[in-house]
Design a protein that fits this description.
Layout: E1 9-14, H1 21-31, E2 36-42, H2 53-65, E3 73-78, H3 82-88, E4 93-97, H4 101-117, E5 122-126, H5 137-145, H6 156-173
Parallel strand pairs: 1-2, 1-4, 2-3, 4-5
Helix pairs in contact: 2-6
The structure holds adenosine-5'-diphosphate.
């Protein structure tokens, strides 16, 4: 009898602080290439994150549940070296998003280093749809903080969380 086909699994790592529609777009594209996409939220940021790791995981989980093919995207958190975690979950590839040329240099350096550390894991870059090319978690946080409308760039759960956070901040200021 033939062995069952192994599951093709990719890891999509990042800080997702918070998850945006650009991130979701890349994750969904990755499901077209892999059986399972593990959206892995890193705990090792040097700078203090805007949202806690639990909040980021919860928002990403809810955002993924609201889209298709939700069952093939799994949200987890991790700490330590990406390649170590990728090996632990038996990922075949690391997926990263490429927006503008400005992402390229950093991503290229990171990819080459990761490949050196784990030559058996492929690095794959996917481009989001045009309207998300200029989108980053950072820009979303900044626009929202200044009172701008970010509803077209983030899932509904994230918009609610951002609004709640702003209300709490306003209350503590008044
Ligand atoms: P950011 O750069 O937005 O703070 P992350 O560290 O969470 O984001 O990013 C995780 C991965 O997702 C990175 O490869 C990043 O380039 C990619 N990414 C983030 N936003 C987008 C987007 N709008 N379109 C495509 N890829 C994106």
């Amino acid at each position: 009898m033939n062995d069952p086909q192994p599951i093709r699994r990719a890891i999509y790592p990042g800080s997702f602080d918070p998850i945006t529609n650009g991130h979701l777009d890349v994750a969904v594209r990755a499901t077209r290439l892999f059986d399972e996409v593990v959206l892995a939220i890193t705990q090792n940021q040097r700078k203090t994150p805007f949202l806690s790791i639990d909040e980021r995981v919860q928002l990403a989980t809810e955002a993924v549940e609201a889209i298709q093919p939700r069952k093939r995207i799994r949200v987890v958190s991790f700490s330590g070296l990406l390649v170590d975690f990728a090996r632990t979950i038996q990922a075949h590839a690391v997926v990263r998003g490429l927006r503008a040329v400005s992402d390229f240099e950093f991503e290229f350096q990171l990819a080459l280093m990761n490949r050196r550390l784990a030559p058996e894991i492929e690095m794959i870059f996917l481009m989001p749809r045009d309207q998300y090319v200029f989108l980053s978690s950072n820009i979303v946080r900044e626009i929202h903080r200044l009172g701008g409308d970010v509803s077209e760039f983030v899932p509904a759960v994230v918009l609610r969380a951002l609004n709640q956070q702003r209300q709490t901040e306003n209350r503590s200021l008044s």
